[in-house]
Amino acid sequence: MNSCASNEIAYLPFFEKHCTQNMNVKIISAGAGSGKTYRLTSELVEFLKSGDVRPSGVIATTFTKKAAAELHERVRTRLIEEGLSSKANELGHAMIGTVHSLGVKLLSRFALEAGISPNVDIIAEEDEQLFFSQSLATVMTNERVSQIEALAAKLSQSAAETGSNDWRQMLKDITVLARANDFGTDVLLSSKQASISEFEKFLYPEEGDEEFVDMDAHSWNSRLSELLERTVERLNQNEDSTKKTRDVAEDLQKLLFKLKRGEQLI
Prior knowledge:
Blueprint: E1 15-20, E2 25-29, H1 36-50, E3 59-62, H2 65-81, H3 85-90, E4 95-98, H4 99-109, H5 111-114, H6 125-137, H7 142-154, H8 159-162, H9 167-180, H10 185-201, H11 217-237, H12 243-260
Parallel strand pairs: 3-4
Antiparallel strand pairs: 1-2
Helix pairs in contact: 1-2, 11-12
């Protein structure tokens, strides 16, 4: 955009937080239901009316397919009302859609330049875990998987215990977050150590309890049982009867039962 809006638009509660002519950028902050789609429609129509922008040169992203379809139809209708039927017909060449759909279109269009196959598509949400598990199988041995399965069962995190998601889903969630934030191995290892340190705070003895200074695996489990009993008791006495709290209390009770049967967790 070539200029900042000099007058506040009274019928739209927009606040233009930043507008720099040299950068040709306009940032608008707007809450839900304030008229964002209306404003975007008006901006696009003005661009196309000016003749400086061709419909095929428009890229507009939305969060949902419904919003993309609505924006496309509103712009098309306004162009027809303005007597610009030819531009309205050319709007089909504009790239208006969700971030994912536009990403697929751009990758397909410039596949050779990107060094990838032009057959690009969005992975269906229900297939994500399947493909992740298949990839996981190429880097983890059966022995390692069996070890994790056994530990997950002891921690009530197996598919049988949770009813749906198991440790693979948790690993996928961590992987997605790591990729989204560009976390490397060093960051993940640091995060792992921080998690262990936080957990250890609940198990370390209070100052003066010399008997727990050099705890072996059996001592750790005994200490954990003691803390679990105390926690379950407090949860059961708590007036909070929400399903989440009850589920947590039940999971802790199961873990406590396993410990009392002599199963070793560490």
